[in-house]
Amino acid sequence: MATDTAAPVTSPAASGSIKRPKGGRRAGRSRSEEKSADLSPVALATGTPTRSVTQVGGAKERSAMRSVGLDLGAKKISFCEVQGGRVVGRRTVGSLAELDDVLGPTAPKARVAIEACREAWHVHDVLTGWGHDVQMVDTTRVRKLGIGQHGRKTDRIDAEVLARAVESGHIPLAHVLSPARRELRMQLSVRRALVETRAQYVAAVRGLLRAKGNRLPSCDVDVFVVRFRETGFEADVVELCAPMLDMLVALEPQLTLVERKVQQLSECEPITHLLMTVPGVGVIVAAMFVAVIDEAKRFSKAHHVESYLGLVPSEDSSGGKRRVGAISKAGNPYLRSLLVQAAWCILRTRDAAADPLKAWGDAVAQRRGKRIAVVALARRLAGVLWAMWRDGTVYDPAAIGKASAQGTSAQAQITEHRAKALSQAAAKATAFSRPQRRSLLQEGNP
Q1: Which of 57, 193, 302, 389 could bond to 383 as cystine, CB 3.0-4.6 Å?
Q2: Of 169, 163, 162, nearest in space to 139 by CA
Q3: What is the pTM of this model?
């Protein structure tokens, strides 16, 4: 005998929740009513209050701050604003001043995403001064946002991708340097350009001498012009090399001036004196390390610093197989090259027992060769410098010999040793002024 099953009783459906076929129109309803924006559905579940918080206060369809993406190009700036997943504003301008109506001091506040680049620090300061929340994007992780996806990459698309990432809250933030460290890095960049220009001229002069069948014995680059004029080459050779020699003479005072500025800025950073107590680390290496790292507390351990500077092996492991290659070369290339130069200075120290870093590097060189050993020593040196900065300690060979960079803080340092190490660092800073080189140049001037 069949029994009738009672159908469950449900609450009446709201008129807005009934699905109807597309194209149909309910009788008695005007088209103006159909075009009205859909509101949030009304809650009719049993046990809920008759009016929800959204119904009382009104639907909040817009966020408190706007979502904006800026693609900073060499000639143009692409602006894009996204709201609710839709592009509501787009513009391409020649300068930041042309965006005053949408990003100026009187414009509604916005979260603005920009990629880290040359002008990013300036744009960050200007927009922050106007009251906006500026988010600098790490360029090594922008592809995760979708930039360059499907082989399509333009300034307009990049700005839109950044704006959508701001709205969704998936911006990979980059560290923003403090103003003092920015100034220090800029002065170091000027010095680097002058040094590289000088090296190019010296190499060009030596090449011309060889083409003429002459050779100039190896000498320090600071006295290159003096040695050239003392050698007494033929008149045609001197006339051929004269323009570059004049440029070398003109570069030297400018280089000395820039180095004096670097030294003055370094004296305002007490941590540079601590870092200079390490063998092979002078004013330039210590100042560049401080200008790039900026804050030691950004990193939790030495390996993170080494990876940040691109001194760790690259890896492409998959399927249970580990594939390790050369160093990743990520991060600042200039600091990485300076650390390698400092590592060469340590390896070339004659007394192997004088420093544990030298002994460690020699042991690696015997097993793997000097080229691999110098990179490994540069990596270890970066960890040691970071640990000294983190703990505020000077270089102690005995402590380095007993512990790794991570364990340096556990070693007690004697006040006498600290004072001696700082005095040696001060001697490095004094020697950096190079009064002997300036006097030689003055003697070599015609």
Answers
A1: 302
A2: 162
A3: 0.76
Where the chain has pLDDT below 70, the residues are 1-63, 352-354, 399-427, 429-431, 433-446
Q: H or E segment at 102?
A: helix 100-103
d(Cα 109, Cα 347) in Å, to the nearest integer?
A: 55
Q: Residue 285 contacts by C-beta under 8 Å, 6 or more apart in sequence?
A: 275, 338, 339, 341, 342
Write down the pLDDT at residue 439.
Answer: 43
Pairing of strands 110-115, 133-137: parallel
Tell me what percent of the chain is helix, strand and coil, each rounded to the nearest 5: 55, 10, 35
For the four alpha carbons of 365, 370, 376 and 377, in that order, the dihedral sign comes to positive
Please report the DSSP string for 212-267 in residue order: TT-------GGGHHHHHHHH---HHHHHHHHHHHHHHHHHHHHHHHHHHHHHHHHH
Go through the domains of the chain in sequence order and give each one's CATH number.
Answer: 66-168 (3.30.420.40), 179-265 (no CATH), 270-314+328-417 (no CATH)
State pLDDT tens for residues 143-158. 888 888 778 889 999 9
CB 361 within 8 Å of CB 376: yes
Q: How far apart are CA 328 and CA 375, in angstroms?
A: 12
Q: Show the CA angle centred on residue 237, arms to residues 231 and 242, nearest 5°.
A: 90
Both structure tokens of 338: 């300076």
Q: Are strands 324-327 and 110-115 parallel, antiparallel or unpaired?
A: unpaired
Whether the CB-CB separation of 103 and 127 falls below 8 Å is answered with yes
Q: What is the pLDDT of residue 55?
A: 41
| 270 class by beta-carbon count within 10 Å (0-12 exposed, 13-18 middle, 19+ buried) | exposed
**Dihedrals φ, ψ of 385, to 5°?**
-60, -40
Check: CB of residue 382 under 8 Å from CB of residue 305: yes
Specify whether the CB–CB gap between 110 and 68 falls below 8 A: yes
Integer Cα distance of 163 and 70 in angstroms: 8
User: Which spans in 309-414 are helix H?
Assistant: 333-347, 356-368, 370-391, 397-402
Q: Which helix (H) or strand (E) is 441 found in, with range?
A: helix 435-444
Q: How many CB atoms lie within 10 A of CB 259?
A: 21
Q: Identify whether the C-beta of residue 269 lies closer than 8 Å to the C-beta of residue 184.
A: yes
Residues 6+ apart with CB under 8 A from 437: 222, 223, 252, 256
Instruction: Tell me the CA end-to-end span of the chain in Å, nearest whole number.
Output: 125
DSSP, res 189: H
- Give the C-alpha separation, 298 to 305, whole Å: 9
